[in-house]
Each structure stands twice: as structure tokens, then as C-alpha cells.
Specification:
The complex is a heterotrimer of chains A (about 800), B (about 180) and C (about 450).
Chain A lengths: L2 E6 L2 E6 L4 H7 L23 E4 L6 E2 L10 E3 L3 H17 L14 H9 L16 E2 L4 E3 L9 H9 L5 E4 L6 E4 L20 H5 L5 E3 L12 E6 L8 E9 L2 E8 L13 H5 L14 E4 L2 E4 L2 H19 L4 E4 L6 H15 L4 E2 L6 H7 L10 H6 L2 E5 L3 H4 L1 H14 L2 E6 L11 E4 L5 H8 L6 H4 L3 H12 L5 E4 L5 H10 L4 E4 L6 H6 L6 E2 L3 E2 L3 H7 L9 H9 L5 E5 L3 H4 L11 E6 L11 E4 L8 E4 L4 E5 L4 E2 L5 H12 L3 H4 L20 H11 L11 H11 L8 H5 L4 E2 L35 H20 L1
Parallel strand pairs in A: 1-5, 16-17, 16-25, 18-19, 18-21, 19-20, 21-22, 25-26, 26-27
Antiparallel strand pairs in A: 1-2, 3-4, 3-5, 6-7, 7-10, 8-9, 11-12, 12-13, 13-30, 14-15, 14-27, 23-24, 28-29, 29-31
Helix pairs in contact in A: 2-3, 7-21, 8-21, 8-24, 9-16, 13-16
Chain B lengths: L10 H13 L7 H12 L4 H11 L3 H8 L13 E6 L2 H5 L2 H12 L12 E6 L11 E3 L2 E3 L4 H12 L8 H4 L2
Parallel strand pairs in B: 1-2
Antiparallel strand pairs in B: 1-3, 3-4
Chain C lengths: L24 H6 L4 H21 L11 H6 L10 E6 L8 H8 L1 H15 L3 E6 L4 H16 L16 E6 L9 H8 L23 E5 H13 L1 H7 L7 E8 L5 E6 L4 H8 L9 E5 L8 E2 L9 H6 L8 E6 L4 H15 L5 H21 L2 H14 L7 H15 L1 H8 L25
Parallel strand pairs in C: 1-2, 1-4, 2-3, 5-9
Antiparallel strand pairs in C: 5-6, 7-8, 7-9
Helix pairs in contact in C: 2-5, 2-8, 2-9, 4-5, 5-8, 8-9, 12-13, 12-15, 13-14, 13-15, 14-15
The chains are: A alpha/beta (about 800), B alpha+beta (about 180), C alpha/beta (about 450).
The structure holds flavin mononucleotide, iron/sulfur cluster and FE2/S2 (inorganic) cluster.
């Protein structure tokens, strides 16, 4: 669109024709108030707060619906406009309960702010206000009708934004009310109910306190919390979530999760898990003391006792039975620094490549296939902006909600062309320009078909006509962003990469740092940055063995064969996840680091209580390779970060710490300041350091001490800008070492976690919120079945 | 055969609905007539009506409820067999609409939106029904009655009560 | 059945077939029926639009927009189908003129719809009647069926190859706001009757996204007559810039209330005193609401004004829908204002704040005032509320509520003040339950 010139409040402005006046003004720093306008959602012009005076027009105009035009002269603040806005506020406040002192939105309320600005506080109505009881629509969504100003943001957010359409508007005139999709008479408690994804986006969009969060309501005031922006621990999309934290006797507790500043990679979006499922962190079942098996039972012991015992026993076993008899298992929820440190611990402290983690996507093949072309790794931002996208496999709506949100928004607002190939009838088909149904086992055949092998058509899809049209449509696209579900693995990935040489790829994984764990080389056959075991730099630095170690499954096989003397499991629950018979580990010395007494921890000889992602700092890498800063929000006394625990264990093992964590060498390391809000640990560390005759200047527990090494040794991460990271901005990296080669007949060992919107692996059962929502939703489903 | 396997509506109405959805460029356009015709048959728009209409139009039940609750002629609870709607808007008010409403209230022993215990009558005060020049006017179900007085109203109510429907002429019989 | 009235001053154009049984297609045809549309078929769109422009016909729905001009705004080429939409939602209090057209001359509406369709290149028309007009809907539906049976509607109308026209009738279900043109389109599309953002205007993006002409039923019914008699001849019947005649509904305190067809520009005083027989029971005139309830009131001494759009505007009010409501000396303006605002409060669609909350507060304040709980400040507050609604709402309903309120307060302020002092006209105004609020029908069962 060509640019047009216009004047706002005497300022000469220019914007592309077709730009909404409200947006054009905002870009120029002129804020026009609005309740109903919400960028990206359909226009309402209902609140009439955005009125402005446009010269030569008879009436005040709404800036939210006016597009800029050449020569337009606009006034956004004058007595006439201020009066119009004031009158509108007076009308709203007439019925508004003004219970701001106890309202969750108090201090974060747009109505409050506007009233402050336009001084509409004088109430001249003698009539009583319409009172209505607050309603619990779901475990996480409460509705306070009198506070609602009917801006319809929630309705649009739910329908247009989420494609769920669980909220509507009922009645008319002053009786109008926002209504959820299960009417009172059809719900068990005889109050309206919400049958939806429980994402809470309606709450985020609500400018007032009409919709409030079940997990937060009446808990505290916004200004009494610290707000820490960090990354959600749950899925592979890596949304930024802002955690509201307040001090409690044993540390600091998370009381709220939301998308307060909307500055993250997720823009406006946050899902149910990112918003509410922080509560596992506050669970009373959290481990807060090290445990040691004594007389067959796990008993609380001191840190010194547990660490000394674990370290010396591990050393003994390594010395007696050799490094190859020891295994290490890392985690999808550890930071990059911790995973890097863990694999370094295995390779350089123990001296084994027996390291693995629960893999949820075949990143190794993707990296190998894209070798040398760093430009072909798609970022989450590509999904947000690209004009053409292809999704093969997966179901982003449930597995990667941000990806789904971006796809939908891109299609809705930018007319992106979305192509879907899937064996299941996934919901995103509603946004697709074209979709094709694949055979359950037809992904490989589909890739071959796309590559030009027509003989595989029947194996790929039951509908070969649709398949042919689909391929034609794809061929007409110049560049695609191709998002692969984790059904797509191994040679299928390689085939697709070759078939679409100008397209970018992404692979969906299941947890916050699934990609990071792979990037950091928590695998037996590849080193950090997907370099083959034996790669020169590492052999020199680590003095590590040059042959691949045992993978996760092989480790348990070895244990069964009494060949695994010790196993060190960090933040993972393989016993449950892989259905391991507890007897398998009977002859293995087992050290477990976790939040809870998981099935794996129950079998351990030593258990260390660890902190979770919300209680530490570092970085994580999402499915797409976008690296983000993790900031410490909460604190739980009695737990330690996994980073610290690995370092301490190495110390007790008798390893030279400076060789593991190059603190003291790094110039940019700090004393824990980067750890976030309630750090205070710098002092504690310094005490410990002095006691151990170490330089107190730098902490070996500081994850940033190892980031230098990661940047030095891991291809892709060398491009990371430290300042960007610390500012909370996401950066896209592509681990593209030039010498990557496809590993023949590699076993990808991908085990999808099959999490839904309401589950998150082992954390599910420790999150009352997720369980509440599950119960609520299963009841809704049951009701519907009963009704049919 | 109806488009819906087990319809809750009479075969005639089901057939009418089948046709109705084909008349418009978008079938959703049939929604408001369908709600009204369903109400005419069932007596009100029940949850079952909402469910079937949503199904017929490929809409969410929520969508149907959003629309249903907007229109003042549609109701979600039963009314009397004869729904007496008295207009009290300006033209009728000037010619005795309120007196007529009061009269109906006493006569039927019910208030606004009330239903007589025998379920025969319900009473509603309504907004202008487009009979201003023949005020005061009342609608009983869809029948218009113009130029009324309390005495004429009695004749009309009696006629419905006796199952005779709209009387041919009230002027003759009334005083 | 509503009584038909007549008066020698009437100029019967639209009403010329009233009372002749013209709902019967044969009788309609016998009285020049379906001639105009065949002329339109022969002479083409440009001729139709030129004739309509020459007629000076202005929309009878209320705003008085020139009809020929409206039709000419529809783009000739359009990727989407074009439509004609006839607004028979007639809900403005004081208005019942479309009622008699549907009752006595439904084919005129059908023929007019076809003419509008030919003018803009539409192949489909919708006739939307308010839900309360079920018996009229039945009449119109029968008329449409008869026209199909004759081959006037459907494929190749009047035997003309390739010229198709369909008409679908539609019913509302109780909502004044649906009379607003964009809300009407929403309603016809099966949605809540909430207006649309303008621009785009219906002539460009209307029903189902296609260019659409929306006209009041009377406007549409005038079209065949205009084509038959010629634009200029029709224009001459009326006053300057206000062509032809229109149906005026005169109601309230007059001796002979009814719907009369009078030339545009006819004297309001004569309409009340001559045509409608003067004030009922020999009482004095107090005030007149001249064009439906949303028009500002005229005092007894302000009725020497011609009934056309421009003269009424000059007099500080509006011609509106032509519903003249006459108030005699006994009427309490406070009560009348309350009844008026109760209507708008009940009918506000609820979309925008100034209208939804404004009508609600006006109603609450007036209710209390009327019940004897008022004070002087209320009068100012009522005026303040109405002033702050004017021109600020999403659609004209807010104005329609504010304008009469301001009129009452400005012209009868002293009566409001006297009311406070106890000179009251008491009347137990009954609450109409707001839409969707605890619906007590059937609660006893
Ligand atoms: C609140 C509101 C209610 C209206 N109701 C009606 C109505 O019942 N009938 C009608 O013809 N026009 C009504 N109108 C006017 C229509 O919006 C529209 O202007 C008219 O149908 C155009 O037709 P015309 O040009 O033939 O007058 C209403 C307008 C508003 C703002
Ligand atoms: S609940 Fe909030 S977002 Fe939704 S309409 Fe009410 S005020 Fe707006
Ligand atoms: S933002 Fe423009 S009317 Fe609400």
C-alpha cells in the first residue's frame, strides 16, 4: 500500500494507506484509549472510547475503524473528546461494582486507568447497581458479571484467536451478558460452565476484572508480587510466561502465571499449562531434603552425607568396574547449561558416552539432513509470518499450542496458505487451504511421493486424487515453512529436506528443552552440536572415549544383565516412562535428582531434591531452535539447582571443579546476578567457595560460567548474543556443523510423550490444577455423550 | 424423509425445515424462522430444539443460544396456550393500553409474563406491535385485535377460552 | 382487521388498490399489476434509475435518502451476487403503514422488489417482515407463490430468456434494532441483530458480502407506481425535493386515527385537524410526535409545518417514518417520556456503551422520577445523559433515544419541574422485563 500523509495533533505523520488510525497513532507514540479494540482481532467500535475529531466530519469518529487518508487532520485530545470519554466512563461506572480494593484486576485494570485519566469518578446515579453473584465457569475461569464492560474481547479471543468459540453474547441491551457454552440447565451445578481448552486467553484479554483466574483470585495484589518473565516448562514451543511470586516462610512461592507484558516469543498467547500449571512447584510433596537408602528405606539425611556418599560410591564403582559400567540420563526440562554440564560430567568426569535422555523428536536426523545450511532451520517466528506453510504429522493444537496459535493467526490476518498432511483429522484443517489424509504408517511413502515416486501413492494415502492435487499445490509454492510432527523421523526427514531445497524446517518436540537436550549432546552417539562422538575438539577438551556409548534402552538392558554398576538420573522418570521393571535396577547403584519421589526415585540409593525450571536461571532452546533466557522466579528452601548438584557431585567424586566449570576463566560470568529476582545466593556461594579455597569472585554454580564453553564448542550457539539473551529476547540458532554426516541405520528412539493440553508428563499428577481441569473437561465430555 | 434421522419435530415441520435451509445462499439464514416455527410447534424453544436446529444448520449450540436470547418473541420456557400480548407503547398508551393491561391482569389473575394455572393463558406487556392507528391493540398468539376496550377484551378472552379462536367481530357483541 | 379510512385530501397512489382485494393476483393484474416490471424489463436499468431519480422519491424508512441515488451506488460489476432487501421490520412506535401495504397490496412490494433487482442487476430479493406480522407473512408468501405460478418469478421471468429473479420471504422474531439496515442483514443471515461497521455500506458490501439495496417496504411499493406514471408526474405530487405522496399513520388522541396517503409537504395542522378529524373528545392539543417515537416533539403551536423531510428538519424535528402521534392536554409528558425511553432501553441491542448504558440510566432515572422519587438534579442529569449519547453511538438507535428525550426536557422542562412539586399524573407504568432476564413465563409450572 502506498503511504499517505496526515496530521494528528499537529504532528505530520505518514503511514501506509489502509492503516487504522489507532495503530498509526500508536506507532507515532500517540496513545488513543480503547476497550474493545484488540490488535489482530475483528473490529467492534463498541466501546466508543477511541473517539477522535477528524476535521470536516460531522461527528466524532472512532479511531479503531477509521483508516488513515491523505490530508486527514485529526485531533485526539481536546475538551470535547475528553468529555465524550468521561461520559462513557460515567455510564460504565454507574453499574460497575467499584470493588477495586478486592478485585484481582485492581492495579492492572484498564477501566481504573481510564477513570484516573478522565476523572469520571463522580457518580450521579441514585439507583442501586445490578448485583450478580460471581460464577465459577471452570476450575480456572471465574466470571464476575457486574464488572464486565462488554468489550467482547474475550468472545473474539476465544472464537477468532483460539478457534474454540466457547464464549458468546446472550440477551440484549443492558441485559447483555457474556455466556459460556454450557448453559446452567445443562451443567451439574446449575451454573453456566465452560467446555473448552481452558487456555485462559479470555482472562488475559479482559481489560477489567470480569474474568479472573481460578488459581489466583483473591490471593494477593499485583503490586505485592515480583513479576519474573521466564520460559514455561511444559511444551516444546517455549512460551514466555510471567510468574507472579511472593515471599513465603520457606522461600518464595509462585501465585500466578500469565502473559503480562506480551513481549515474548508468544506475543499475545499463552495456554492453560503456561498460565496455571506452575502449581506443581508449590506441591507439598516436593522433596526438600536429600534421601539415602538405609535398611532398605529412603531416609532424610544431610546434604554433606548424601553428597559424600553418592560421590565416593560413584568413584569407587567407576574405579572398580570401569567407566563403561556407569550410565547417565538427562532431561527435557533441564536448562541447556545443565544438560551440557551433565553430558560433560558423563564424558569427562566419569569418562563414558553412556548418556541419553527421553527423546521426543528426531533432531539428530534433522540436523544431519540440514547439514551446512543453517538458513533452513525455521524459527517460531517463521510460523507466525511465512506466507506458505506445510504441517506434516503432529497435532499442534494439543502438542504445540503456540505453533497452532501462530498458524491460525497467520492464516486469519495475513491470509497465509496452510497445507496439512496428517493421518488424523486434526483441528488445524479448519484453517488449511488444502489438507490430505495420510495412512497411519504412510509418512515415509508420502515423502517419497512428494519426491516424485508415484508408486508410493497408495501406501501414502487412501485418497490418491487428493494426494495428487496436494502435491501440485505444494509444487506451486516457491518456499514453504515445513513443520514436522514427531511421527516424521529418520530417512523420511532426510527425504523431505532433499525434496524441498528452498524450504525451512522445524520439528515439533514435547518439552521445554527437548531440543536443547539434543543440541547439548545428551546422547550416546553425538556430542554437543550433533558432532559425532570422537570429534576432535571434544576429545581434546574432555579426554572422552571415541566410541558411542549405550543409549537409554541399552542402559536398562545392561542393568538387567548386571553390567550397569551405577546410574545417575537427572530430572527424568524413565522407570515410568519406559515401563521398566523395578527389579531391573536391583543391582545398580542409582542416584536420582528430582522434584518428587517418582517411580524412578523410589528405587534410588540416593535422592537429591532438585529445583525446577522456575527456580533457576540459564537458557533453553525450543523445538525450533529459538534460545531464550530462563530467569529464576521462585525459590524453595531445601532444594538445589541441578547445575549446582552436578558440580557438587563432581566435587565429591574428586574431580577438579575448574575443569568441569571453567569459572575463573570466563570473563563474562557473574556472581549469580543473572539468576533473577531472589537470587541472594551469591553470598551463600561465596561462603562455600572460600571454605573450599576457591576464588570467591566467580561461582562454579553459575550457569553462565559454562555458557562461555557452550558458545565456544557448540556449533550454532557460537552465534548467540549474550546481551540479547539477558534482555529476554529469543534468538534463533542453527546447529550446523559442516562435518555432520548422516549416521547410517541410526536408531532414533523417539518416544512421543502423548501429552494433551491438560497433561505434562510426570508433572501432571503433581499439578492439582491440571487434574482439576482434566476432571472438569472429562465431565463435560461425559455430559455430552450422555446427551447424545 | 427428514434430513435429520430422529427429529423431534412433526413430519410437516421437519419437511419445512429441510426446504427452508435450501432457500438461502447460506443455510444459517434459516435460523430465526426455524426458532420461531419450532416455538410455534413445541410451545417454546427447548434445549432439544436448540440441539436439533444447531445440528441442522451446522452451528454450535452456543451460537443458537446467542441468537435465541436476542429476540424478544423467542422464549425458553412454555407460555400459555394463548399468549396475550398487550401493547402499551405510546400510541396504545394514549388510547388506554395500560388500562387494558391492568384489566387483563385482573381478569386472568396473572402479571407480566405470568401463566394461568390451567396453562391456557399467559400475559405479556409488549412493545409496539405495528397497530398504532387502531390502538389500543393486543396480539393473542399471532392474531391481532384492534381498537379495544376492556369489554371487548373480555369477549376476546372468552372466545379463546371456549376454543373458538379469534372472534369474527367483537363490535357487535360488545357493549 | 385494521379499519380502512379515507379523506378527500388524500392522493391515492400507493393506496390506490387498498380495499380492492388486490392481494389476489388476478385483481392485482386487473389494476395495472406487473405492468411496471415489464416496462422495466424492456427499458433497462438506466431508465429505471433515471425515472426513480426524477421522481424525487426519498426513502420511507425514516432517513429520507433519495432512492434513485441509492440504487445508482451499486457497482455494475461485482464478483459476488447482488441482492435486494425489503425492510418490512416496521417497529418504530407510531408506525403501521407497511402493515396496510402487506395486507392490501402485497404484489406491489413483490413487483417493486423485482424492479429494484432489475435496476441493480440482482437476481434475488428478500422481503423481511417483523415476526409479529405472521398473518401478513402468510399473505405475502401466498402472493409470492402466485407470482411464481404465473412465471413472474423464477427462471426466465415473463418468458424473457436468461432473466431470473427469486424472492424469499423472511421473518424476524421481535427486535426493533433489526430495522436498522445493517442489523437487518445480520438478522437475515441468522445472527444477532447487531449493526455492522460502516463503511463499507450495503450498496458495496451487504448481504452475504454482495452489493445490496435495502429499502423500506413503502419505498419499494412506490416503485411500480412511479414507473407507470413517470418520474416527473410523481415528483409533481409532492413538494420541493420531496417527490410524491406517502402514507401517514395518524394515531393517539385524534377522532379518526388511521393510515392516510397525503402528498409530501401537506400541512401537519391539516393532517391532524382535517384529515384525522381533530383532537378526540373536543380536547386541546398539547403536543405532536411527528414521525415515529424517535422524533423530537412539537408543541401545539409548532404544527404549522409542511410534512416533508426538509421542512420538518427546519422545524427541529424529523419526518421519520410518517407516524404522527397526537397528544392531548391530559397527557403527562413525564409519563410519555418514560414510556418512550422504556422502549429504547428494551430495544437497544447492547453493542455500544453509550446506547446500552445510556438508555438504561435514562430509564432508571425517569422511572424513579415518575414514581415520585425525583429531584431537580435529575432533570439536568437526564439532559446530560441524552446530550452525551447524541452522535456518539454505534448506530442511530442511540440518537433515536436521545433526541426525543432532549425534546421533552427542552420543550417541557417546566412540566418536569411541576411534576416534582406534586402536580402529577400518576400512572402505574408496568415494567417490561428486559430481554433474557429471569424469564418468568411458565415459572409456575
Ligand atoms: C434503529 C433503527 C430502526 C429502523 N427501523 C426501520 C424499520 O423498521 N423499517 C424501515 O424501513 N427502516 C428502518 N430503519 C431505517 C433503515 O436503517 C434504512 O434506512 C431503511 O430501511 C432504508 O430504506 P429507505 O431508503 O427506503 O428508507 C431503521 C433505522 C434505525 C437506525
Ligand atoms: S468479560 Fe472482559 S473481555 Fe469479556 S466482554 Fe466483559 S469486559 Fe470484555
Ligand atoms: S476501540 Fe473504537 S469503539 Fe472501542
Amino acid at each position: 500500500m502506498p503511504d499517505v500523509n496526515f496530521i494528528v495533533d499537529g504532528q505530520k505523520l505518514t503511514a501506509p494507506a489502509g492503516t487504522l488510525l489507532i495503530d498509526a497513532c500508536k506507532s507515532a507514540g500517540i496513545e488513543i484509549p480503547a476497550f474493545c479494540y484488540y490488535p489482530g482481532l475483528s473490529l467492534q467500535a463498541a466501546c466508543r472510547m477511541c473517539v477522535v475529531r477528524i476535521e470536516k466530519q460531522p461527528k466524532l469518529a472512532t479511531a479503531c475503524t477509521t483508516t488513515v487518508a491523505e490530508g486527514m487532520v485529526v485531533h485526539t485530545e481536546n475538551p470535547e473528546i475528553a468529555q465524550a470519554r468521561k461520559a462513557t466512563l460515567q455510564l460504565l461506572l454507574g453499574n460497575h461494582p467499584l470493588d477495586c480494593p478486592v478485585c484481582d484486576a485492581g492495579g492492572e485494570c484498564e477501566l481504573q486507568d481510564m477513570t484516573f485519566k478522565y476523572g469520571a469518578a463522580d457518580s450521579f446515579y441514585a439507583e442501586p447497581k445490578n448485583h450478580r453473584e460471581e460464577q465459577k465457569w471452570s476450575p480456572v475461569v471465574y466470571f464476575d458479571r457486574p464488572r464486565c464492560i462488554l468489550c467482547y474481547r474475550c468472545v473474539r479471543m476465544c472464537g477468532e484467536g483460539m478457534d474454540v468459540f466457547a464464549l458468546g453474547i446472550q440477551n440484549r441491551g443492558s441485559s447483555s451478558v457474556i455466556a459460556p457454552n454450557v448453559p446452567a440447565q445443562l451443567s451439574p451445578e446449575n451454573i453456566p460452565n465452560l467446555d473448552c481448552e481452558q487456555c485462559g486467553m479470555c482472562i488475559d484479554a479482559c481489560p477489567v476484572g470480569a474474568l479472573t483466574s481460578g488459581t489466583y483470585r483473591y490471593k494477593t495484589r499485583p503490586w505485592e508480587m515480583n513479576h519474573v518473565a521466564t520460559v514455561c516448562t511444559h511444551c516444546g514451543d517455549g512460551c514466555k510466561t510471567t510468574l507472579g511470586v511472593r515471599s513465603v516462610a520457606n522461600g518464595s512461592e509462585i501465585v500466578r502465571g500469565d502473559n503480562r507484558d506480551k513481549s515474548g516469543i508468544n506475543g499475545d498467547f499463552l495456554c492453560n499449562k503456561g498460565r496455571y500449571a506452575f502449581d506443581f512447584a508449590n506441591n507439598i510433596e516436593r522433596l526438600t531434603s536429600p534421601l539415602m537408602r538405609k535398611d532398605g528405606k529412603l531416609k532424610p539425611v544431610s546434604w554433606e552425607e548424601a553428597l559424600t556418599f553418592a560421590g565416593t560410591r560413584l568413584r569407587e564403582l567407576r574405579d572398580q568396574r570401569g567407566p563403561q559400567s556407569i550410565g547417565v540420563i538427562g532431561s527435557n526440562r533441564l536448562t541447556n547449561e545443565e544438560n551440557y554440564l551433565l553430558q560433560k560430567f558423563a564424558r569427562s568426569v566419569i569418562g563414558t558416552n553412556n548418556i541419553d535422555h527421553h527423546r521426543t523428536a528426531d533432531f539428530v536426523t534433522l540436523a544431519a539432513a540440514l547439514r551446512g545450511s543453517s538458513k533452513r532451520f525455521a524459527s517460531q517466528h517463521c510460523v507466525e509470518k511465512a506466507p506458505a506453510l506445510l504441517v506434516i504429522g503432529g497435532d499442534p493444537t494439543t502438542q504445540a499450542p503456540l505453533t497452532a496459535w501462530n498458524l491460525r493467526t497467520n492464516v486469519r490476518n495475513k491470509n497465509a496458505r496452510l497445507y496439512i498432511a496428517n493421518h488424523a483429522d486434526i483441528k488445524l484443517r479448519r484453517q488449511a487451504k488444502a489438507a490430505v489424509t495420510l495412512d497411519f504408517a504412510g509418512y515415509g511413502a508420502f515423502a517419497d511421493y512428494l519426491a516424485g515416486d508415484d508408486s508410493t501413492a497408495n501406501a501414502a494415502s487412501p485418497d490418491t486424487d487428493a494426494l495428487a492435487k496436494f502435491r501440485d499445490a505444494l509444487r506451486a509454492e516457491e518456499k514453504l515453512i515445513i513443520v514436522l510432527g514427531n511421527e516424521v523421523r529418520g530417512s523420511t526427514i532426510a527425504r523431505l529436506v532433499d525434496t524441498f531445497p528452498t524450504s525451512k524446517f522445524a520439528l515439533l518436540s514435547d518439552y521445554v528443552n527437548s531440543r536443547g537436550a539434543a543440541d547439548m549432546g545428551v546422547m550416546p552417539d553425538v556430542l554437543p552440536g550433533y558432532q559425532l562422538v570422537g570429534a576432535h575438539a571434544f576429545v581434546e577438551e574432555y579426554k572422552s572415549p571415541e566410541t558411542p556409548g549405550l543409549n537409554l534402552v541399552e542402559m536398562f538392558d545392561a542393568a538387567l544383565a548386571r553390567e550397569l554398576a551405577a546410574l545417575y538420573v537427572v530430572g527424568s522418570n524413565p522407570v515410568a516412562r519406559y515401563n521398566v521393571d523395578p527389579a531391573t535396577l536391583a543391582n545398580t547403584f542409582l542416584i536420582v535428582q528430582d522434584l518428587f519421589l517418582t517411580e524412578t526415585a523410589l528405587l534410588a540409593d540416593v535422592v537429591f531434591p532438585a529445583s525446577n525450571l522456575y527456580e533457576k536461571s540459564g537458557s533453553v532452546t525450543n523445538s525450533y531452535g529459538d534460545v531464550q533466557l530462563v530467569s529464576k522466579a521462585a525459590d524453595k528452601s531445601g532444594t538445589r539447582s541441578d547445575f549446582e548438584l552436578i558440580v557438587r557431585l563432581a566435587d565429591k567424586f574428586g574431580h577438579e571443579i575448574k575443569q568441569l566449570v571453567p569459572f575463573g576463566k570466563g570473563l563474562r560470568a557473574d556472581m549469580g546476578q543473572t539468576r533473577g529476582a531472589q537470587s541472594g545466593e551469591a553470598d551463600r556461594h561465596s561462603v562455600w567457595l572460600t571454605a573450599n579455597n576457591l576464588e570467591p569472585k566467580l561461582s562454579p554454580f553459575d550457569p553462565f560460567a559454562i555458557l562461555d564453553e557452550i558458545q565456544r564448542l557448540v556449533p550454532g550457539y557460537d552465534k548467540l548474543l549474550r546481551l540479547q539473551l539477558l534482555s529476554g529476547n529469543d534468538q534463533h540458532i542453527a546447529p550446523s556443523a559442516g562435518d555432520l554426516v548422516q549416521i547410517a541405520n541410526r536408531n532414533d528412539l523417539v518416544l512421543p510423550s502423548h501429552d494433551t493440553l491438560f497433561t505434562s508428563g510426570s508433572l501432571t499428577r503433581f499439578s492439582p490444577q491440571l487434574q482439576d481441569v482434566q476432571r472438569h473437561q472429562s465431565r463435560e465430555v461425559a455430559d455430552h455423550l450422555a446427551a447424545d | 424423509m427428514s434430513a435429520i434421522a430422529s427429529t423431534i419435530f412433526s413430519p410437516e415441520l421437519a419437511a419445512r425445515f429441510d426446504k427452508l435451509v435450501t432457500l438461502y445462499p447460506l443455510k444459517r439464514s434459516a435460523l430465526i424462522p426455524m426458532l420461531l416455527y419450532a416455538q410455534d410447534e413445541v410451545g417454546y424453544v427447548s434445549d432439544a430444539c436448540v440441539a436439533e436446529i444447531a445440528q441442522r444448520l451446522d452451528l454450535l449450540e452456543l451460537d443458537v443460544r446467542n441468537v435465541l436470547s436476542y429476540y424478544s418473541m423467542l422464549r425458553t420456557v412454555p407460555a400459555g396456550k394463548y399468549n396475550v400480548q398487550v401493547c402499551t407503547n405510546i400510541s396504545c398508551m394514549l388510547r388506554g393500553g395500560f388500562e387494558l393491561l391492568d384489566h387483563c391482569k385482573h381478569k386472568l389473575g396473572i402479571g407480566h409474563k405470568g401463566v394461568t394455572p390451567d396453562g391456557l393463558f399467559s400475559l405479556e406487556e409488549v412493545e409496539c406491535i405495528g397497530a398504532c392507528c387502531w390502538a389500543p391493540a393486543v396480539q393473542v398468539n399471532y392474531d391481532f385485535h384492534d381498537d379495544l376496550t376492556p369489554a371487548k377484551m373480555d369477549v376476546i378472552l372468552e372466545s379463546y377460552r371456549n376454543g373458538n379462536g379469534k372472534p369474527e367481530s367483537v363490535d357487535k357483541e360488545a357493549v | 382487521m385494521p379499519k380502512l379510512v379515507s379523506h378527500p385530501d388524500e392522493v391515492k397512489v400507493i393506496s390506490r388498490r387498498f380495499g380492492t382485494g388486490a392481494a389476489d393476483i388476478e385483481k392485482y393484474i386487473a389494476q395495472d399489476g406487473y405492468k411496471a416490471v415489464q416496462m422495466a424489463l424492456e427499458n433497462g436499468p438506466a431508465w429505471i434509475i433515471d425515472t426513480m431519480k426524477a421522481s424525487g422519491l426519498r426513502g420511507r424508512g425514516g432517513a429520507g435518502f433519495p432512492t434513485g441515488m441509492k440504487w445508482s451506488f451499486v457497482p455494475k460489476e461485482s464478483a459476488k451476487p447482488k441482492y435486494v432487501l425489503v425492510n418490512g421490520d416496521e417497529s418504530e412506535p407510531g408506525t403501521c403503514k407497511d402493515h396496510v401495504i402487506f395486507l392490501h397490496d402485497p404484489h406491489a412490494v413483490i413487483e417493486g422488489t423485482m424492479i429494484a433487482g432489475l435496476a441493480i442487476g440482482a437476481k434475488m430479493g428478500f422481503i423481511y417482515l417483523r415476526g409479529e406480522y405472521r398473518y401478513l407473512l402468510n399473505i405475502v408468501e401466498k402472493a409470492v407463490a402466485d407470482a411464481y405460478a404465473k412465471g413472474f418469478l423464477g427462471k426466465n421471468i415473463f418468458g424473457k430468456e436468461g432473466v431470473d429473479f427469486d424472492i424469499v420471504t423472511q421473518t424476524g422474531a421481535g427486535a426493533y434494532e433489526v430495522g436498522e439496515e445493517s442489523a437487518l442483514m445480520e438478522s437475515l443471515e441468522g445472527k444477532r441483530g447487531v449493526p455492522r461497521i460502516k463503511p463499507p455500506f450495503p450498496a458495496v458490501v451487504g448481504l452475504y458480502g454482495g452489493p445490496t439495496v435495502i429499502n423500506n417496504a413503502e419505498t419499494i411499493a412506490a416503485a411500480p407506481h412511479i414507473l407507470l406514471m413517470g418520474g416527473e408526474a410523481y415528483a409533481k405530487l409532492g413538494s420541493e425535493r420531496n417527490g410524491g405522496t406517502r402514507l401517514f399513520g395518524i394515531s393517539g388522541h385524534v377522532e379518526r386515527p388511521g393510515v392516510y396517503e397525503l402528498p409530501m409537504g401537506y400541512s401537519l395542522r391539516k393532517a391532524i385537524y382535517d384529515v384525522a378529524g381533530g383532537i378526540k373528545d373536543g380536547k386541546q392539543l398539547k403536543a405532536v410526535v411527528p414521525g415515529g417515537s424517535s422524533c423530537p416533539v412539537l408543541k401545539a403551536d409548532e404544527i404549522d409545518v409542511g410534512l416533508d423531510f426538509d421542512q420538518m428538519a427546519k422545524a427541529g424535528t424529523m419526518l421519520g417514518s410518517g407516524g404522527i402521534v397526537v397528544l392531548d392536554e391530559t397527557v403527562s409528558i413525564v409519563e410519555f417520556a418514560l414510556r418512550t425511553i422504556r422502549f429504547y432501553q428494551h430495544e437497544s441491542c447492547g453493542w455500544c456503551i453509550p446506547c446500552r448504558e445510556g438508555t438504561d440510566w435514562l430509564k432508571k432515572t425517569l422511572t424513579r422520577f415518575h414514581a415520585g422519587g425525583g429531584n431537580k438534579k435529575d432533570i439536568d442529569n437526564i439532559q446530560y445523559l441524552a446530550e452525551n449519547m447524541m452522535g456518539r453511538t454505534f448506530c442511530p438507535l442511540g440518537d433515536a433515544a436521545a433526541m426525543p428525550t432532549l425534546g421533552f426536557i427542552k420543550k417541557f422542562r417546566s412540566e418536569f419541574e411541576e411534576y416534582l412539586e406534586g402536580k402529577r399524573v400518576d400512572h402505574p407504568l408496568i415494567q417490561i422485563q428486559p430481554i433474557g432476564e429471569p424469564d418468568t413465563i411458565g415459572a409456575a409450572h
